[in-house]
Amino acid sequence: MPSSNNIPYFDLTHQFANYRTAWLQEIERLGQTGNFILGSAVNQLESELADYLGVKHVVTVANGTDAIIIALRAIGVGSGDTVIVPNFTFYASVEAISLVGAKPRLVDICEDDFNVDPQKIREAVDDRVKAILPVHLFGLPANLKEINSIGEEYGIPVVEDVAQAFGSIYSDAFCGSIGDFGCFSFYPTKVLGAYGDGGMITTNCEEYAEKVRLLRNHGITGPNQHELVGCTSRLDAVQAVILSLKLKSVSQVITRRRELADRYRQFLQNYPVDLPKDLPGRKHVFNIFTIRSPERNRIADALGSHQIGYQIYYPMPVHNQIPYQGLGYSDEEFPKTMQACREVLSLPLYPEMPDQHVDRICEVVCSALD
């Protein structure tokens, strides 16, 4: 457990203590059934998640990266195809495109929300584009109205990357229920996180749902019968039961995250930092609380000297990562992405975090800017 003199960037120990007894009881029950892969616990979770998100179909998978890969394969994306994706994102969003044999078409972001710029999507559309992959970065929905409009105009499926945004809302609908697919991660630090890896795919299309169910499990249609080349990407029942337990309180978790974000914003509003915004029609869940400042390095040094954890998401655009340097992009093509990489810094925020930690962090940030 972290020292009482430190403020970690994230701390799962208190959360685990809250769920420990109930989770271990569920594991004991699973042990008595011997059913650890898929089965009734996973089926129950998928039904609960579909009800919560208001979506017709939920298919759980092994992790969030697999969710994107399988969704793209279900659409038929492969060699020779292109997928439009923001340059400012976690690497896996783009990596998944490469892993189905397609080519990422990287585009710039909007300055006010770190999300993909719909106008840049429109400019990137050509005959090779087979999917649009908006990322709801840090927990704030991308501009799905404009993005879906482009997809509908050109007949291009929209695959939402909701890894950082479980429970976020765009225009009265949950993210992941609006595009053709929603792809989620249950990594432990997410708004709804497992105690291991996990992910899911959401869709309102029966045909897509049937395809992803086959793809996640070797294309099996019956005993020793395989309809297509799939993969092994199944959620295990041990993770399913903790996710079912945590889903019951996820709305309160989101409320607490928003309370902590409001406390940060109230404290820092008069200082020269750009703070996460609540944009009209979009509910932020603050999976990550990211500020931006030209004085980012000074703030980081101050936090470090006071033993306060922080992260920089993300210091490098995808096009400068080694596997993608050969795509031929230049920094000048992505001015807003490059500025974000120079200025962003993410502060600690998790639901068990006490208010006093926010106050102390803000005091250090403010002192660094004085």
Features:
370 residues, alpha/beta, Aspartate Aminotransferase, domain 2, Aspartate Aminotransferase, domain 1, 4-stranded mixed β-sheet, 3-stranded parallel β-sheet, 12 helices
What is the fold's blueprint, element by element?
Blueprint: H1 13-33, H2 39-53, E1 57-61, H3 64-75, E2 82-86, H4 91-99, E3 103-107, H5 118-124, E4 129-132, H6 144-154, E5 159-161, E6 169-170, E7 173-174, E8 181-185, E9 199-203, H7 206-215, E10 220-222, E11 225-226, H8 237-247, H9 250-268, E12 282-283, E13 289-292, H10 296-305, H11 335-343, E14 344-347, H12 355-369
Parallel strand pairs: 2-3, 2-4, 5-8
Antiparallel strand pairs: 1-9, 6-7, 6-12, 8-9, 10-11, 13-14
Helix pairs in contact: 1-8, 2-8, 3-4, 3-7, 9-12, 10-12
